[in-house]
Design a protein that fits this description.
Layout (H helix, E strand, L loop, with lengths): L3 H7 L2 E7 L5 H13 L4 E5 L10 H12 L4 H12 L6 E5 L1 H7 L1 H11 L3 E4 L8 H9 L3 E6 L5 H10 L4 E4 L13 H12 L4 E4 L5 H9 L4 E4 L1 H10 L3 H14 L18
Parallel strand pairs: 1-2, 1-8, 2-3, 3-4, 4-5, 5-6, 6-7, 7-8
Helix pairs in contact: 2-12, 4-6, 8-9, 10-12, 11-12
């Protein structure tokens, strides 16, 4: 399996999120290939869920499209196995508790390891209840990712760091996915790094342009997660979304790489 942590420690990273099976697995496969070709360092796949409380309307709509196509977690794990044969970057699953606990933790981790899955983020599980997940993650060599908020206190950050074998995912806003990043992000990154020192910190929510990526990296982030903007491209362009995704990811990735300007004029102003 690829190492998410080593990838992020090696270079400032772009983590690209889309929903698995939106609107079907065939198209999702093309999208993931385009994202990898565009230069993403990690692919994050959302597991469709009927009550995604942390997600904004764009990602909620993508979950509905996937659920209409009967996309479920067991099929997603089989899909990950096929994806891993075609790309050489880490793959993370982002899920709510319900889909995982429905099939059972041990069965999930057994299938996840066989699929080649590299990392797992369970959005709605608190640090007080993560121990069994953490234990199984280590047993099956899947890196665990934990969320931190702008108002997470220092003692809790230390606990979160202990269980974050991949990276700490700092939510950049007090809202849902797609909301604009808060001005407090930079100071929170510095606080986390001062408090825990060694665990990579990646920032997500509200990342839409190269300048957003650049700002987060200049604020001290080790990586940046872009999701809603990519899902919006899928919603708008459908079967023709792959080349647009590739260009957009390439543009976002440049925000981590010496801040070069894209030669593909107008990528950041694409009609999305």
């Amino acid at each position: 399996m690829a190492s998410i942590r080593k990838t992020i420690e090696k270079r400032k990273s772009l983590i690209a999120f889309i929903t698995a099976g939106d609107p079907n697995f065939e198209w999702s496969f093309r999208y993931i290939k385009a994202i990898a070709d565009g230069g993403a360092d990690v692919v994050e796949l959302g597991v469709p869920f009927s009550d995604p409380m942390a997600d904004g309307t764009v990602i909620q709509s993508s979950y509905r499209r996937a659920l209409i196509s009967n996309v479920r977690l067991p099929e997603i794990l089989a899909f990950v196995k096929e994806v891993k044969k075609s790309i050489n970057i880490p793959v993370v699953l982002m899920s709510y508790c319900n889909p995982i606990f429905t099939i059972g933790l041990e069965e999930f981790f057994s299938k996840a390891e066989k699929s080649g899955l590299d990392g797992l983020l369970i959005v709605d599980i608190p640090v007080e209840e993560i121990e069994e997940v953490s234990m199984l993650s280590k047993e099956h060599e899947i890196e665990n990712i934990m969320l931190a908020a702008l108002n997470t206190p220092e003692d809790r950050l230390k606990e979160i760091s202990e269980y974050s074998t991949g990276f700490i995912y700092l939510v950049s806003t007090y809202g849902t996915t797609g909301s604009s990043p808060s001005a407090l992000v930079g100071s929170k990154i510095r606080e986390i790094k001062k408090t825990i020192g060694h665990t990579p910190v990646c920032v997500g929510f509200g990342i839409t342009e190269r300048r957003d990526v650049r700002k987060m990296i200049m604020s001290g982030a080790d990586g940046v997660v872009a999701g809603s903007i990519l899902v919006r491209i899928i919603e708008k362009y459908g079967e023709s979304a792959a080349p647009v995704l590739r260009r957009k990811v390439r543009s976002l990735k440049e925000g981590t790489e010496n801040f070069k300007y894209s030669k593909e004029v107008g990528v950041d102003d694409y009609d999305i």
